[in-house]
Amino acid sequence: MKIVQGDEINVIKGVERHRVNASDRVHLLEGEDGTPGNFSLVIARPDNRYSPRHRHNFEQFRYQIEGTADYSRTGKLKAGMIGYFPEGVHYGPQQKGEPGEKLAVLVLQCGGASGAGYISRAAVPAATEELKKLGTFEGGVFRRNPGLPGKKNVDGFQAVWEHINQRPLVYPKARYDVPILMHPDAFEWVPVEGARGVYEKVLGIFTERRTSVTFLKLDGGAAYTLSGKRDIYFVLSGTGTVGGEPYRRLTTLFLERGDIARITADEATEILHLGLPDLAGLPARQDSRPAQAEAAE
Amino acid sequence: MKVVQADKIEGKPASFHRGGSSVYTHLVEGDDASPVDNFSLIIARTPGRFSPRHRHNFEQFRYQLEGIADYGRTGKLKPGMIGYFPEGVHYGPQTQDPGETLKMLVLQCGGASGSGYPGRKAVMAAQEEMKKYGHFKDGVFFRNEGVPGKRNLDSFQAIWEHISGRPMVYPKPRYDVPILMHPDAFDWVPVEGVAGVCEKQMGAFTERQASARFLKLDPGAVLSMTGKRDILFVVSGTGKIKGGAKSDPLRAHTTVYLEPGDKAVLEATHEIEILNMRLPDLAGVRSWSRSEHVEAAE
Lengths: 297, 298
Description:
By secondary structure, chain A is mainly beta. Chain A has 3 helices and 22 strands. In chain A, 8% of the residues lie in helices and 40% in strands. Chain B is built from 3 helices and 23 strands.
């Protein structure tokens, strides 16, 4: 079990890499590099950031904390909305925000049902710098220098992935046609059986590996036992204790399989609960494993 | 438990509030006296159909069996695809190539909003009554001049308002758009503790968790199930299903409905693939009563 206080973590200033402009980030949680279930949870504050229409070989949840993220024909995430962005499904382009508009988004990126895994954010800066010797990043696209082998223009993140993994990125076949944008305020709270003062609203469960998003609410004084199967709990409002530690807005909890944590609310509390996909029994895809170590020998 | 053999049910002309000349095979229905959780499961054959862009106050799953259903900007359902159409969310317009006959499995049911679902008999009766003061054309109800009420209205909305005696208030959309899914892109996952049985969960939706998954049983595999308002639709293969003392064959398009607590045992003779749709759990959702609105109209 891991508990982090989101308001105590230093903000890492954004540096423009494979997208236009950058996001300041608070890195909340990370998974285990090199595994199909690797993941990253950050609060990103994009600053005039543009991203072309693209797709990934990992899945995402994006919970809009502040401002409106405009994904063009994919739709808009207004504050309080959450979107599920499946593997292999195009989205965007993401437009720059309105001048002066502050955006803040909680972003979970994780290896999904395809087994393609997830490259840790830490690997991206070095790869981007190396790629700058081979071409340029413009408008979120990597443009390879003439005469070099490989596709001339490639999505910026795809170029980074292929550089790290030394093989072409094969996108998973799309399970869903489009990203799924959800309005939590349109869902109703459902009492949790056997837990007085505790309510939930399940927004959706996706793929055969059951990636999920739920909101949890506790009345002041209510208590509840959280059990883990690779679950993230992000406090939106309220105070209390969880696993013996205090919680408040932005407190983030990660429960591994088998972890248990008792939560007691001092005041009314609302929590975003993201269930990572259950990848038990799923082998890593060959094209997800970094080839760098072998290539360097 | 209810088991129906679709190949033994005669298709009937569909209601005329949408354009075209569809034929429906009615497989399973809920209880008209319980509108909140009422539902209808049909196989629709549509040789020619147009439906304008519209939305409903109930939810749907549409599983495409034959042909391509073109829902315009919503997308297309090709054979083997399944779509979840949430309450209050626009979709369509639906068009199809002349001469092409589509075949799809359609589940319509009361959803999380509690708005319920009017039964087929009520819809057919309402249509006849409404002919006295308007007409249906291309999925729209056109009210006669001088008759109070909105002049042109989505035909199903007009029928619902006629039955309920009040204006329809669409549920606030929980999702921006319908969710179209490609089952062939999902991988089979072994069901823990059950030899020879795999599943692929497509998705579960809303706080009441309407869901769809596919099940696959190898020859000889056995799966015990306890119902929670489950529909099992055999996509392919053969086997049998036992519920209590009763045993029924399973073959393509055999349809089973399991009420909460119903116990059934499925056994595959040849590899069998089944679409399992679970109706939303509406326990505790406030009952919508037709009688409340009859009183309001008096």
